[in-house]
Write the structure tokens for this entry.
Amino acid sequence: MSILIRYDIGAARLTELLRSVAPRVLLVEEAGQVLEAHVLASLTPSIQHMILIGDPLQLRPSIENYQLSADNPGIGQVYQFDRSLMERLSSSELRMSRLDVQRRMRPEISELIRCTLYPFLIDNDVVMGRPSIRGMAKNVFFLDHRHAEGGAGEDSVSKTNAFEVDMIRDLVLHLLRQGTYTKTGDIVVLCAYLGQLVKLRKAFEGEVVTVVDERDIAKLLDHRDEEDVAGIVENAVQQVSIDSAVQLKTVDNFQGEEGRIVILSLARNSGGNPANRGIGFLKSKNRTNVALSRAREGMYILGNADDLAQSEMWRGVIVELKRQEAIGPAIPIACHRHPQKVTLISAPGQIARHAPTDSTADTFAHSNVTSMTRITDERIVGRSAFACALAVIPVINSAPYLAENVNSLSLCNLLADIPFKVNVGVSSVGVIRGTHVEKTFGASISVEEIVQRTMTVLKCFVKSVAAKLAVITPATAPAPSLCGEPCEAQTCPTCAPDNVKSQVVDFIMQSSLSDVDLDGDGLDSRLITLKCGHVFTVETLDGICELASYYKKQDERWLQLAPAPKGLQKHPLCPLCRVPITSKRYGRMLKRVDLDMAEQNVANKCRSTLRDVSEKVSAFNVEDRAVRQVERGLRDLQWDAFTMPDADPTSSTTVVDCEVIPKNEAHPVSSSRFGSRIKDRHQLPEALVTAWRNAAYSVLRAYDKACIVASTSSAHVRTWEAAVATLHHRYMAEPQRLEGVSKFSTVEEAALAKARKDCGAPSTPKADQRFRVEGCWMTIQIRFLLVQVAQGISEYLRKKGLDTLARTRWADFIAYILSSIRRDATLALEIAEKARSYRQVIKTAVLMMEAEYQTFSHRLGRQRNGMLLKEFQHEARAAYEAARAERTSQANRYRLFATQGHKDDEWLIENFIEPAQRVVGKWAKLIMQLKKGVVYTEVTDQEKRDVLKAFMSGFLGFNTRGHFYQCPNGHVYVITECGGAMEESRCPECGCAIGGQSHTLNRTNTRAMDYENLAREEGLGASPFAWGRDA
């Protein structure tokens, strides 16, 4: 038995493959999302049995044009291109097998689709015990509001709702603070419109990690130049301080997936205006079904119930929500330990004032009494009167005391009946818990600030403890480990079992645990117990982790930070079991290892992306395929489709000659400059722009991917920038720290210089420079291809007789692409120079040389003015000498820094000297052509009219069209009398065959439509002969 698995995309292209395999069974998975045409294309004659698996009530297949969708009440009902074969058969009442038991949604959620679409749906027992959502009073709720939507049009990227963005932001942060929903996939925010996803991603920046689906990123590529969109395209997963990831997805890309909690933003809202109550895509039962069936434990919907009532399905959903009392103008929230107190939230910002405390404070406030060794750097965000009283007690670290069974201690009547216990060890901080005494700490209070505020209480408490203790005995045994290591995880040399005592803990002295002397003054003999349970001395672990590479040491004392080691660092492992070492003592080293791992991930992704882009670029315009595609798109258009209204044909003013691409603009420049915006930017005819976009679409998508690589920042760079920014902010707030920093005119400059010095790295990391430059190279190669295609189109337009001004503006567009190449090549060269990557420098220099040549060549081709011949000759000679000098100087410079001898020479010849010589050769050939005077003056429209009028008068007296033709190279000739070709000859300019036989034109010749169009304007009638009627 053989099984063939393939995607449905491009089904028709694989028909021959299927025929050769001759399968008898066709099984289509997710058949409800497969276009009917793709299934039909797979039904080869050998198929005997077809099995369709899917749900026709969920998402339909994706198509690009909403006008042809079955959801469109207009023309879409005629075509229904997105209606799958499975849905068609289902609606025709073909009997289908059905699974009626669901194991995902809690009953309150499944009831929403049971009452509307699936009346026979049964809940499995596993969904009956789903836990209630922590911090919320309802597990399912619809926030019914009247805040109007934003955006325009009905497409999937335009609609937004600012109120829903702010409410969802507050709700997500509130759920994260509960401490339970911190894993990726626990919280999913679904958007009905792509524009709302963009706004939500912007709102979450800097607060939570947001993950945007690759399919949504692909859709956003068409809008990457719009505000807020570019950042998402460049960084689909944003890393920030909170260790929680929230998924942002559109409904269309969430079928087959699920989330623990789903927050659904519908965006559409008329704001109570009856004249604007459209709900667009939300009318679709399929999309609504997917949106309502993704959540396991909780679902929260934001929208306008009155507007949604236009949809039959939404009417049923709203009725069910009202039955559950789960719809209203305010979301009810409640502390999970005080569920009786419910707070209604109806506006952004209210949750921050009324919600229960976050997970950190909750852990402290509701935990059993314990020592809190590890909270020194934590932040406690007290949000409301729900917070239980919390006090922090310093315990004398130099002389730890043992206290047992201390009960019912009175704290000056401030707190009552406080159970308290001090753990044995070297804990520097302890915590006591009051009996839910209401107390509010400010917006953000550190442990140290709490200690300072409650010092009076603490002093009184210490006296109370001393009075109650029957025996206070100083602890005689020295602490075996270091401050900062978790006390409960450390191994005591005295209490350890014999098999542990015999373990070798000092690899240098080969000492066992029982031999370790803890009475020494230094730290080398102190012990650290790893997570795997093995114990080692500090000296041994310092050596394994190469601590001396990260800190400077003198006289057995660690003095200061050392520059981080170069190269990628590997995670240190336990020498006995090879489990990674995670001790807090080696935090700097471990963070460096994590950064290096992230660096490798970024490098692998960039490398893979560039490989994919290179393949697409190689396939573009093979055998002038792209040029021919544009020609096909323009072939059947009438000549007046290219007319430039209100244009002065004699004007030589260009649209973009004076436009300079700002240096602070994204590097490389956006693809929209060569795609989506060229019509308005260059004032080109609509027909030409459409044909160009269709031909260049695939390579411009590849261009966008290369831009993402070119703008990617590595983990090291982002970390360095964050460290410098933090220190700079601190020094600006505390200028006294800048004492001793001189040679700077402003405080800001001094603070920045000190921040860069103190951040732990001497200069900006250069880890990402390689791919930034290589990504830029790829965009330049793509633009060279676009220039090649555009020049081919330009020649075609000249032969077709396009309006002169339109051709001039198309030439301006080509010059514009070339100027963007020179701009980005210059910036790439600067990056490579700063990184001292000399191989990248000289490879970029070749691109610069090629760009200079193509720019001059294009300018020369446009002018074709014999009067400027001498000037062009001088410019070409100067450019030729400059190219030769550049070739020599760059090669010598590279050899100066080369370190690998003949290997470097071989690389230099292949990657620089030979390509540079080819460019120099092009200049030499161009100079020879200029010496021979091979420059033509382009004929203006007025001159063409004069030629035409000469034929209209005199003995020839043309009074009909159909006399003007051109050879394969565009040289124009005239056939008199009836205008039909009766004999063959040779073009005096290029020697190509012209004319024809028996009124049949040579198949390589074409009609000179620019002259024929002018003849029509001059009033000449149509030819009475068959061979002239197309003129």
Residues 217 and 233 are 6 Å apart (CA to CA). The first helix runs from residue 15 to 21.
